[in-house]
């Protein structure tokens, strides 16, 4: 295909703003799949996954569109994840394109993550076309949405088009605008005759192994070629290349300007890293494409099977998920309180939710996640520098010289009415610092903060949504590490330390948290025949204490009883898990108590 008539574009949209519906219309308009089959086969399968909230992004789609100028154009449309945790992946998908559609729901306005992704597109020099969607709805506010797009990302009216993905109104005009305004792939230059390709995604397939999604910037690649992945420094022989139309279709070759896939017998997803450059192993380019980065998990949590017998099953499930998710890392961990499980690293909270959800839905595993923790850094008195991913490994006070924690730039877009309460949430309840406010259209403002990541990863999002009745949206970016006055808080039950109940907190919050924890434990642990002291220990002393009184014998029975009718496998596991007791310091602690505590902060 003549690259002059290729347009590579990404869609940037917030969830529910109409991306799937728009793709549906474009496929229909370009007669790309049999219309009758479309709903059932292609889009419904996506819907099902989406309903589960587990799809991060769908694969790219190639369509052919005959423009009003009479020419036939090849459009490659890439999905980008709208989630905060996947910014790096978004940036690589954008780097594979020359243009982007910024799709905004006219009844909702621009959301915070969309702004971030649009900025990323601008950094990659993409031509951005705004599409104001759902204009068929009476509540659509086209003018205000237009103003917001102007204010937030500076796109002018002549690059914005009102559409209805549902009725199809404006969609042809959108395609016309794309072929006129978005440059052809030649604009990014076919700078080399040698093979130069960008990996922007990879999927695991049972039969083919790893399927690499790539954009070719120079040269071409075909079956039988020897390719080299530059960052992972591995060489493979190409077994198959092809395009997405929208299913994978094998082609003769992939050449400069095109977007497609490569199968090359790659076994491990970690070999096919997003952002890596593909070149000819025998005739390689000298310098890889810019922008490659190794993604590192930012949030860690303990992950335990609901019942110890499911440990093996959980390990297998994690390994399966890992096949498609290079950013998921896990190592075995055991804890006297929780038994055998894993320490798992995630890109962020959303990534964590997705993994948990998938374990439950796809593998029917009831799992327990402990309170997530960020990665702290510490400089020890002996000069050593360490990273701490598990609060129970936080070193003793007297060993530490300095502690550092990750900080973020946080942006919240909200109607002005909720401004006061949101600032209060970030500044008073959490440890954020309000920086300034800027305008977005007439009806909304952007609040800018600096805040420790640790304060964002626990219930911030839910509280923000509750305060703003669902109207506010947020986005954050980790800016770096800063020194912080952090201390370790530990809980002793009957004078024995409970590793699962170790917390790293800011010194100013240690007393409040300690009080909450000892009180809650007192309520959660059943009485025993002896008195049980519960203590919170911090910086070498006990800072809070409560006592569970001793019990007269006859009541004991009642605390443990109860039989349940079991229906679903999942429910059964969960219930059993909750009835489990852990013995710490001769005290029987229901697993339920741990679960309830994991929610305290
Ligand atoms: P996605 O999450 O961005 O893929 O959003 P969907 O395409 O699934 O759309 C979310 C909801 O908005 C669905 O119920 C769609 O039917 C609806 N929707 C999408 N586009 C339009 C539109 O132009 N008009 C109306 N009225 N509804 C739309």
Automatic annotation (TrEMBL):
Its EC number is 3.6.5.n1. Keywords: Cell inner membrane, Cell membrane, GTP-binding, Hydrolase, Membrane, Nucleotide-binding, Protein biosynthesis. GTP binds at residues 16-21, 133-136. One of its GO terms (biological process) is positive regulation of translation. The keyword Transcription regulation does not apply. It catalyses: GTP + H2O = GDP + phosphate + H(+). The keyword Acetylation does not apply. This is Elongation factor 4. Gene3D superfamilies: 3.30.70.240, Elongation factor 4, C-terminal domain, Elongation Factor G (Translational Gtpase), domain 3, P-loop containing nucleotide triphosphate hydrolases, Translation factors. Required for accurate and efficient protein synthesis under certain stress conditions. May act as a fidelity factor of the translation reaction, by catalyzing a one-codon backward translocation of tRNAs on improperly translocated ribosomes. Back-translocation proceeds from a post-translocation (POST) complex to a pre-translocation (PRE) complex, thus giving elongation factor G a second chance to translocate the tRNAs correctly. Binds to ribosomes in a GTP-dependent manner. HAMAP family: LepA. One of its GO terms (cellular component) is plasma membrane. InterPro entries: EF-4, EFG_III/V, EFG_V-like, EFTu-like_2, LepA_C_sf, LepA_CTD, LepA_IV, P-loop_NTPase. It is a peripheral membrane protein.
């Amino acid at each position: 295909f003549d690259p002059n008539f290729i347009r590579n574009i990404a869609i940037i949209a917030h969830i529910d703003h109409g991306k799937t519906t728009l793709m549906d219309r474009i496929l229909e308009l370009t007669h790309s799949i049999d219309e009758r089959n479309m709903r059932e086969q292609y889009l419904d399968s996506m819907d099902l996954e989406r309903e589960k909230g587990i799809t991060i992004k769908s694969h790219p789609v190639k369509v052919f569109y005959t423009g009003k100028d009479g020419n036939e154009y090849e459009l490659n449309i890439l999905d980008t994840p709208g989630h905060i945790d996947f910014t790096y992946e978004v940036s690589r998908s954008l780097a594979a394109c020359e243009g982007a559609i910024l799709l905004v729901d006219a009844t909702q306005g621009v959301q915070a993550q969309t702004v971030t992704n649009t900025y990323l597109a601008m950094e990659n020099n993409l031509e951005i076309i705004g599409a104001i969607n759902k204009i068929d709805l009476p509540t659509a506010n086209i003018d205000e949405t237009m103003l917001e797009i102007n204010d937030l990302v500076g796109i002018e009216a002549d690059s914005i088009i009102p559409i209805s993905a549902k009725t199809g109104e404006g969609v042809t005009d959108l395609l016309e605008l794309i072929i006129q305004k978005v440059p052809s792939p030649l604009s990014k230059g076919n700078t080399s005759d040698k093979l130069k390709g960008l990996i922007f995604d990879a999927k695991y397939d049972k039969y083919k192994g790893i399927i690499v999604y790539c954009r070719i910037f120079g040269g071409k690649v075909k079956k039988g070629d020897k390719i080299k992945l530059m960052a992972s420094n591995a060489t493979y022989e190409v077994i198959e290349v092809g395009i997405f139309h929208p299913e994978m279709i094998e082609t003769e070759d992939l050449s400069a300007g095109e977007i497609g896939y490569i199968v090359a017998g790659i076994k491990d997803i970690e070999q096919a890293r997003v952002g890596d450059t593909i070149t000819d192993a025998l005739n390689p380019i000298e310098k890889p494409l810019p922008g490659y980065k190794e993604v590192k998990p930012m949030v860690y949590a303990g992950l335990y099977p609901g019942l110890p017998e499911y440990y093996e099953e959980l390990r297998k499930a994690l390994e399966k998920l890992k096949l498609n998710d290079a950013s998921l890392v896990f190592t075995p961990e055991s804890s006297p309180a929780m038994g055998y499980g894993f320490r798992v690293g995630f890109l962020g909270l959303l990534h964590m939710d997705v993994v948990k959800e998938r374990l439950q839905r796809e593998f029917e595993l009831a799992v327990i996640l402990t309170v997530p923790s960020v990665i702290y850094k510490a400089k020890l008195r002996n000069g050593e520098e360490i990273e701490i991913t598990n609060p129970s490994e936080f070193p003793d006070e007297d060993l530490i010289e300095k502690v550092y924690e990750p900080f973020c730039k946080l942006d919240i877009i909200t109607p002005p009415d909720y401004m006061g309460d949101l600032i209060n949430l970030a500044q008073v309840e959490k440890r954020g610092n309000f920086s300034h406010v800027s305008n977005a259209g007439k009806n909304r403002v952007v609040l800018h903060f600096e805040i420790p990541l640790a304060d964002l990863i626990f219930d911030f999002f839910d509280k923000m949504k509750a305060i703003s009745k669902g109207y506010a949206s947020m986005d954050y970016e980790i800016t770096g590490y800063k020194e912080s006055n952090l201390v370790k808080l530990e809980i002793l039950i009957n004078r024995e330390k409970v590793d699962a109940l170790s917390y790293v907190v800011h010194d100013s919050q240690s007393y409040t948290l300690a009080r909450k924890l000892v009180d809650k434990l007192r309520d959660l642990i059943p009485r025993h025949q002896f008195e049980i002291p519960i203590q919170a220990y911090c910086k070498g002393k006990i800072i809070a204490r409560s006592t569970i009184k001793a019990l007269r014998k006859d009541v004991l029975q009642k605390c443990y009883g109860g039989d349940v009718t079991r229906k679903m496998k999942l429910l059964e596991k969960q219930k059993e898990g909750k009835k489990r007791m852990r013995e710490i310091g001769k005290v029987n602690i229901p697993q339920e108590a741990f679960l309830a505590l994991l929610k305290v902060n």
